[in-house]
Recover the amino acids of this structure.
């Protein structure tokens, strides 16, 4: 594979100097692009699209062509890991994922397979190889996985939740089982991320979507050891971004991880985040996704304010969460163009 | 009405010295107490219970008798305000509230009544008078209302939401309409809270349940003016608590309101909250409600740690959110007893 022509995001993640701030968008592949919806239709279902390397590659590359982002992110789903571990799921449009079987007792752990998750997930590594070939070095490819706590929540609840009460109750009532499951998830995640890197992923992101429901003590005691294990295992591979949504209370801990970049949601100011994580991490984020409901003038104003707050180095521009499905593609492109054209004062 | 025998919570709110930390629990009236479920059954539905002063009074007082809390909180619903303003709702057990009509355009504003919300809500003021009589000064009675942003969300969306996209989009796309609606809500809320105080409420709490979805700029620009208007209007009446869940980013602004107490969720540490709101506010909270899933030993440990962090003055002990419906009443009582027995070191 040839040299990556636009390596802004890799340099920003490693803390090297960049000529301008790189930009990509969580959920850029899918949702708001019309050509995505065509491919999604062709695939039949979301899960079939995830499992089809050719089509997954196609929608991964679409935002590079259409939006001009500085990175592609693998089109996939964090829930392929629980599935590969033995808990298949269905995706009900509008109601979200649903698992027939869940882990709520030590006995349920027998449901988990002892087989290789990497073998099960060959459709992902096939997609990664295909994407790298088709990208042909235009921009780097980001691989990803769900963080242990978020995956744990789905495996315990069997679906999304407002309070994740079953999962949080298990941490209190059966810490041994909770640690056993979190540990299994972390090991599977490490194997999976290593396979993504071997196949060609040039950056990684760990999504802890439900971090914000926990208290700080619990996050430190139950979750951080597995975040650290994953970051340590991946340290000598490619730059890693940790995005723990809502976990402002744990930013100092996250800043001590052996990762390169900390993703921020739109509640956390650049100044405060920097004071928490220190000078040696790149920050990623964090425009409020709802700003994209506004006019292009409003989007430009808010984007420039954000860029000014983060400054020209050690920043990867992004939204503070995945783009909402009802955002116009033009408004998303306005955000991206504004970043690419910005001159710092 | 006679003198209040246990006025710990009133003194704590006003920053006066207390012999021990007062304690109450959000959602203490309802949900986890068996006698509540009997009355709820008798009433027919949640909304019928809310509208029945005798039964509402009965469930308001139950936790004083059963749990030994230091305050009663009116059994009611924040959604009586939109209903009184002209948008009736139904409550579907498990799926939450649902409004047939919503406010999404300037035209929809015509749906709102010009009548007096206070007249419409006489069942609430009747309940307040009845509760005060039946409490007979044992503990103070807390009245409450939803904060303008949270009520706005329900009036715009017509139901709960994960992202409140319609509401946040309206702030961007039609700020004039948004301000008009927020202003109407604030005025109705002031009239409602004043009527509660006249009927006998001895403290007030404003619940901004969905504050945590907004960014700081938007919260300052759109929400704070109405929070301030309400707090200013109530300043010379009874102590006011503002609880903006998830709005850690706005704590400094909230600390500048003319209210007495700031409610905290379980993500915000006592130290940090104090640094944000300054010395002249009482703090309320903030045990993680999921701690109550643990053993009584775990509950005692976590409660004592919380008390120690807040210190013996200017603190009202509470959970960081409403008690979850599947918590055992004994575990809730353990939390309350632990606060009442605690000796500060």
């Amino acid at each position: 594979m040839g040299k990556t022509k636009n390596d802004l995001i890799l340099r920003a993640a490693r803390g090297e100097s960049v000529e301008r701030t790189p930009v990509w968008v969580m959920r850029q592949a899918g949702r708001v692009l019309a050509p995505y919806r065509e491919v999604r239709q062709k695939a039949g279902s979301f899960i079939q699209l995830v499992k089809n390397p050719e089509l997954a590659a196609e929608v991964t590359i679409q935002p590079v062509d259409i939006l001009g982002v500085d990175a592609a992110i693998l089109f996939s789903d964090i829930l392929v890991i629980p599935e590969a571990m033995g808990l298949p799921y269905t995706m009900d449009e509008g109601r979200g994922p649903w698992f027939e079987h869940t882990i709520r007792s030590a006995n349920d752990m027998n449901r988990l397979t002892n087989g290789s998750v990497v073998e099960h997930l060959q459709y992902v590594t096939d997609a990664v190889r295909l994407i790298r070939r088709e990208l042909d070095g235009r921009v780097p490819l980001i691989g990803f996985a769900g963080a242990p706590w978020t995956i744990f929540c789905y495996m315990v609840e069997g679906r999304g939740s407002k309070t994740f009460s079953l999962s949080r109750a298990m941490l209190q009532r059966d810490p041994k089982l909770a640690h056993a499951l979190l540990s299994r998830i972390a090991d599977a995640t490490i194997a999976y991320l290593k396979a993504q890197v071997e196949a060609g992923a040039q950056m990684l992101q760990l999504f802890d979507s439900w971090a914000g429901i926990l208290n700080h003590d619990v996050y430190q005691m139950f979750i951080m050891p597995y975040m650290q294990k994953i970051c340590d295992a991946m340290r000598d591979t490619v730059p890693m971004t940790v995005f723990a949504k809502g976990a402002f209370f744990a930013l100092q801990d996250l800043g001590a991880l052996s990762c390169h970049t900390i993703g921020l949601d739109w509640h956390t100011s650049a100044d405060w985040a920097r004071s928490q994580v220190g000078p040696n991490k790149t920050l990623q984020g964090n425009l409020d996704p709802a700003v994209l409901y506004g006019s292009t003038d409003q989007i430009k104003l808010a984007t420039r304010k954000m860029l000014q707050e983060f400054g020209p180095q050690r920043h990867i521009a992004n939204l503070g969460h995945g783009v909402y499905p009802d955002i116009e593609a033009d408004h998303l492109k306005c955000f991206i163009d504004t970043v690419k054209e910005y001159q710092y004062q």
Summary: The domain at 8-341 of chain A is CATH 3.20.20.210 (TIM Barrel). The CA atoms of residues 79 and 151 of chain A lie 7 Å apart. Chain A touches chain B at residues 163, 165, 168-169, 171-173, 212, 214-218, 246, 248-249, 266-269, 288-291, 293-295, 298, 302, 320, 324, 326 (CB under 8 Å).
